[in-house]
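Long-time lurker, finally posting.

We've been working with Chaperone protein HtpG (Taibaiella soli) and I want a structural starting point before designing mutants. I don't trust myself to interpret raw outputs, so I'm hoping someone here can both generate the C-alpha cells and explain anything notable. Sequence follows.
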Amino acid sequence: MQEKGTISIHTENIFPIIKKFLYSDNEIFLRELVSNAVDATQKVKRLSSLGQFNGELGDLKVSVSVDAEAKTITISDMGIGMTAEEIKKYINQIAFSGATEFMEKFKEAKDANEIIGRFGLGFYSAFMVADKVEIQTLSYQDGAAPARWICDGSTEFEITEGNRTERGSDIILYVNAESEEFLAEDKLQQILDKYAKFLPVPVKFGMRTEHVEDGVDEEGKTNYKEVEVDNIINNTTPIWTKAPGELNDEDYLNFYRELYPFAEDPLFWIHLNVDYPFNLTGVLYFPKLKNDFDFQRNKIKLFSRQVFITDEVKDIVPEFLMLLHGVIDSPDIPLNVSRSFLQADGNVKKINNYITRKVADKLSELYKNDRKSFEEKWSDIGVFVKYGMISEEKFYEKAVDFVLLENTKKELFTLEEYKQKTAGLQTDKNGTQIYLYTNNPDKQDAFIQSANKKDYDVLVMNHPLDNHFISHLERKLDKISLKRVDADIIDRLIEKDDAPATVLTEDQVKTVKEIFEGAISKANMEVTIESLHPEELPVAVTMDEFMRRMKEMSQMGGGGGMNFYGAIPERYKVAVNGNHKLISRILESSDVSVQKELARQAFDLALLSQGMLTGADLTAFVNRSVSLI
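Top reply, 14 upvotes:
Generated this for you. Predicted structure of Chaperone protein HtpG:
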C-alpha cells in the first residue's frame, strides 16, 4: 500500500500561516495531541462497554516520550486507531473553502486558541514545532492493516503501510531547529503539569524511581529496594469528578494543597455540580484574605473534560469572586475557547449566574447554621460579600440578610439589627438615621470618644473597598446616611433640635473668629464658631464628608468624574467651640500675642489629633508647648 497526494485544504499552504500566527502559543501543540490521544482511548473504552469491540483493552494509557538525539517527540496511545481511509478523511481534509476566506475569517481571531478552535487545526498544531510529522496507526477494526502517514510541512503527504502491531496510534514530531527547547524533559514536564494534570486517562512521561519493601532482615527491620515505575503525571479522578457524598473535609483540603502548595488552608468550599441547563462541575474555595484585599486573580482554573484550558475566567466567574480559588470544568465550553466566545455564549452567562447563586446560598447557609463561626470568618469573607453586593444586584438581594457591620467594640450586626440599634438616638432632626464610622480608630480616637459621650455607636470601615460599599449602602437604604466620625463636629454630624446655647455675644463670636483666622493664616482653612458642650475639644479640624469621600475614591482609581475630585485642592473646616473655657481665657487676655499663641496652640492640637501636624509646624508646636508648661 502506497499513496501520495495533496492535503485538501484549498489554500496554497496552511503551515506557514500556522507557524507565523500561532508561534507565541506554540506549547499548546502538546495539549492538543495528548487530548486527541485521550479521546481515542476513551472511545475504545466506550466501544468495548457497548459490545462493539470485543478485544482486550490492554494497558490504556497515553505515553509521551522524547528523543533528544533524534530530535523527536512521540505521543502514543492504545485508542481506536485509524485506517488509511480514516486518515484521508480526518487528517487530509481540513474544512477550508479557500485561502481568501480563511484570511478574512482570521482577522476576527484574537489568539491561537480561537484559530485552532474555529478551523479544526488541533492536529496541525504539531507543525508549530515540527518540520515533519509522522503517524503510525492501527485501527481497532477486525482485519485492519497498519497505516503510516507522513507530511513535511507542505501540502503533500504520503500514506504507506505502517509498522504498528498493536491497536492505537503514535504521533511522531520531528522538531524543527527553532523549537528545540521542547526536547528538554523539564520543559515537556512543565507543559504536561499545566495542561494534563487531571486528564481522565493515565499519561506516562518517562520513568521514576520508587522505594518498595523487600523483605525483612535478621533484626526484623524492613528492607527496601529501588524499582523503576511508570511516571504517571496526572490524577485521573480529581475530586470535582466525584459526588460530594463520597468526599470528606480532608479530601477537599488535600486537593487544595495539591493546587496551591504554599497557601494557607481555605476557610470553606463550595462543590459545584449541575447537569441542566448546562453541564458544570467544580470546587471553589474561599481563601483567607484578611484586610490586605489581595487582588491576586487567575487562581481559578477552567477545564473542559478535565483538560486545562485557562486561568483567565473573568467572563465565567463573577467579578467579585475572582479572588476565589479552585477549578471549574464544563464540557459545554470548547477546549480551544476564546474571549469572544466566552463573551457571546449563552451558557457562559448561565454559568456565571449559577455560581453567583451557589455562593450566596452557601454563605446564607453558613450564617443561619452557625452564626458564631460565620462571625469568626467575617474578617476574611467580608471582602467577598461587600464586593459582591456592590457589583451584582442579585447577590445584593441575598447578601442583605447576612452582611455584617462591625463597631469599635468589635460587635457585629446585620443591617436590620444595626438599624434597630441606632434608631432614635442616631436619628437627626430631619428624620435621617446616621451611621457613624471610622476608617482609623487610633487616629480618630478623639472623635470616637466624642461620639461615645453621647452614647452614639461608631462602625469600623477600614477596608479599601469600604468607600464604595458605604456609597452603595446609602443608595440602597432608605433615609440612612453614613458619615465618618471625623468629618465634622459631632453635633453637626447628627443635628438635633436641642443644640447647646452659645455663651458668646455676637461681638465675641466675631472677635474669636478674627483671632483664630489670624493665628492660623491658612487659605484652605475655614473658621467657624460653634455652640458645643463645654467638655468638647476647643478646636476640631475636619474635611467635608462628601469631598473627602470623593477624593479617596479617586485615589482608589474610581475613574470617570472621580478624577475631577482628586485634582481639587484639599479644604478643611476649623470648628472652634465657643463654649470651651479656653475661649473665655483668650477673650479675657488683653495681650494680642497671648491670644494668638493660645489660638494657634489649640489649632495645632486639633491638627495633631488628625496626624496633620508635620515639619516646621510640629517643631514650633513642641517649642511652644515647652514654653507654656
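Before you design anything, note these points.
The two ends are 110 Å apart (CA to CA).
The mean pLDDT is 84.
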